[in-house]
Design goal:
Blueprint: H1 2-16, H2 20-43, H3 49-56
Helix pairs in contact: 1-2
Length: 57
């Protein structure tokens, strides 16, 4: 769910940004955020690593 939500938010924000370098920075930031959510779910022992990988795929 987090991947879908943050991807949509990133898409909507990046459509409004004019500068190309700012778009890249925003995109990289959102990718890091999504990956961090996956890692935190593993650290909190809410999911197994295989569950997170399956969710990303």
């Amino acid at each position: 769910m987090g991947i879908i939500f943050f991807s949509m938010v990133a898409y909507l924000i990046m459509n409004e940004i004019k500068g190309n370098s700012l778009k890249w920075a925003m995109g990289i930031g959102f990718v890091c955020l999504v990956l961090l959510i996956g890692v935190i779910r593993i650290i909190m022992k809410v999911h197994f690593p295989t569950d997170i990988l399956a969710g990303f795929g």
